[in-house]
Every structure is written in structure tokens, then in C-alpha cells.
Amino acid sequence: MKKVSGRTLVLLLLMFASFFLLINKSYLFNKQLFAESIEKKADRGKDINILLLGIDARPGEKVARSDTIILLSIHPSIKKGVLLWIPRDTRLDAPIKGSYKINSINFYKGPEKTCEVVGQLLDIDVDYYMTVNFKGFEKIIDQLGGVDMDVDINLYSAQSNVYLHKGRQHLNGKEALKYVRFRNFPSADLGRTERQQKLIKALMERMSQPIFIMKIPALLPQLEENISTNLSFKDLLYLSQMEYLLNSNHTYTQTLPGYNYIDRHSGASYWIVDRQVAASVIKSVINGHRYKVQEKP
Questions:
Q1: Could you tell me how far CA 278 lies from the centroid of its own chain?
Q2: Is residue 52 classed as helix, strand or coil in its secondary structure?
Q3: What are phi and psi of 218, to 5 degrees?
Q4: 16: number of CA atoms within 13 Å, CB side?
Q5: Using CA atoms, how far apart are residues 7 and 77, in angstroms rounded to an integer?
Q6: Residue 63 above 60 pLDDT?
Q7: What is the pLDDT of residues 182-203, one digit of tens each?
Q8: Using N-to-C axis directions, what is the helix angle for 111-122 and 275-286, rounded to 10°?
Q9: H-helix segments, the chain
């Protein structure tokens, strides 16, 4: 399991969102300010569930299918957390606008509905979300000077003019995004999930360098354009102070277990999960159980 990359994802998204909210003054009047704060929920021992959605929206679009779906479940009473990666091809029991894939919900119904469906799948309440447009990451990566990554595949894309070979490489924004979104191998969605985690780790390493502070002004327009959340600035600050989320002994990473299935009629590929397992996976991981990601049908 990749605990480090999972935790760095949380830090990266919280950092990006904080920057966004600092410059978006109108957010201070958002109705979310009048809701119960995360701090008060934590004081009452309530679990906090935040859905992190990585989307690929075109210029001018506000919604898109979810390329990445991660549930951050925080348990303040015992100071533990779980990062649950939900494969984008996870099959729904009922279709949304004709699509049975969980990644279509955000496109058709928005992040609030995605929170609702994920909550039903995992038998928990999911009240908060944060969406990040990965298309904007291309410019962000370029402004950071690129990233160093261990490329695990040979990738040749004449359409994108991206040609990568296995091994340690320095990637620009276009190359990094093409690499992490590639899914034409048998591992498909799971392989792409692992590569996305590697990109987040590489970005965090780049952002930890002192020169990053000087690059923040140039990054702010991209952050504002590519992040949306219903978390208040106060909530984000409180979350950033939960130090135990950075401790590998307190925060666990798990991909929602299941198996690949190809519909013989439509040819569509799905990730099939056991609903009973899904409904107990957060509690089980918190209690120390670990699941094999790929299960037998």
C-alpha cells in the first residue's frame, strides 16, 4: 500500500484549496459558513468524510467525469484516518443518465450527488467535497519546472507528441498528465490510480523545495480556476492542523476491493465491488484489516 503518496495527496489538495480561498474573497459569504464546522463535529467525536474528485474539464466547463475518486475518512475521536481510492469504473446498481459507472455522476448530477452515492455505497455520511481539475495541473507542473518520476511503462502517443521510456525521467506537464492518465494495459484503472499517486508524490516533493514559495503568485490563477469545494476556509485550516493524518501509523490507504468485469453485450469495463464489503471497509481498515485490491469474481 502507498501510504506516503496518499497522505501527500491530502496535503496537496488542502494547500491548493487554501490558496484558492485566500484570494476568492466572495467565498467568505458562502452559506457553508452557517453550517456546523468540522471542528465542532470533531469535538463531538463525529467522523468527517470528505470526497476528493479529480476531474478533466475542458476550458469553460465547470463539471466533468471524475478521473479520480478518493474518500478521506477522518476519525478524530481515535485520531485515525483512511484514504479510500474508489476506481472510476465502479459499477452502480442503477444508471445515471444511462451510465452505470460511478465516474459519470459528477458530470450529470454534480459533486453533491456524487457524495450521496458514495455515502450510500460505503454506508456513511459524506458531507464535504473538493474537486480539482487535473487539466490545470499541466500548467501548474510546467510553472513548477516539471517533475521527476519513475516511469514504469513505454508510452508512445503521436497525437499528443509524447514519447516516454521506462526509467527515471524529468517530465513536463503534458508528459506527466499523459503518463498518469494512460490506461491501455490489463491493469487499466488500477494502474492509472497508482500512477496518479506517483504524480501527487512528485508534485509534493517539488513543492517542498524553498523556491516554491517564490512561484506561488504565478500559481494562484491556476489554483483559483481549477479548484472547487464546499469546505470553508476555517474548516480547511482546522484540517491542516490534524497532524496525525501525516503519521503512517494513524492514516491508512486502501483501494476499494473488487474485480474487473467486461459486459459481453456493451463491451464496457466495470469494477465490481461486494456491497457488504464496501459498507464495512472504512471500519475494517481503521481496525487494522487490509484487503487485497483484486478479488476473484
A1: 18
A2: strand
A3: -75, -25
A4: 30
A5: 19
A6: yes
A7: 766 555 567 777 787 777 677 7
A8: 90
A9: 3-23, 38-43, 105-109, 111-122, 135-143, 173-181, 188-207, 212-226, 233-240, 275-286
What dihedral angle (degrees, nearest 10) is formed by the CA atoms of 132, 137, 141, 142? -140
**Distance separating alpha carbons of residues 134 and 180, to the nearest angstrom:** 10
HSE toward the beta carbon, residue 280, CA cutoff 13 A:
9
- Asked whether the beta carbons of 169 and 199 are under 8 A apart, the reply is no
Which residue type is seen at 3?
A: K
SS (H, E, C) 63-104: CCCEEEEEEEEEECCCCEEEEEECCCCEEEEEEECCEEEHHH
CB-neighbour burial class of residue 240 (10 A; exposed 0-12, middle 13-18, buried 19+): middle
The whole-angstrom separation of Cα 208 and Cα 203 is 9
The rounded percent of the chain whose pLDDT value lies above 70 is: 79
227 contacts: CB under 8 Å, gap ≥ 6: 13, 16, 17, 20, 130, 131, 132, 133
pTM above 0.85, yes or no: no
CATH number for 3-134+210-286: choose from 3.40.50.720, 3.30.420.590, 3.10.28.10, 1.10.260.40.
Answer: 3.30.420.590
Please say if the pLDDT value at position 144 is more than 50: yes
Question: Each residue of 135-171: b (16+ CB within 10 Å) or e?
Answer: bbbbbbbeebebbebebeeebeeeeeebebeeeebeb
Contact 263, 270 (CB under 8 A): yes
Q: Are 214 and 184 in contact (CB under 8 A)?
A: no
CA–CA distance, 248 with 246 (Å, rounded to integer): 6
Kindly list the domain boundaries of the chain, sorted by start residue.
3-134+210-286
Q: What amino acid occupies position 4? A: V
Q: What is the rounded radius of gyration, in angstroms, for the C-alpha atoms of the chain?
A: 19
Q: Can you tell me whether residue 86 is helix, strand or coil? A: coil
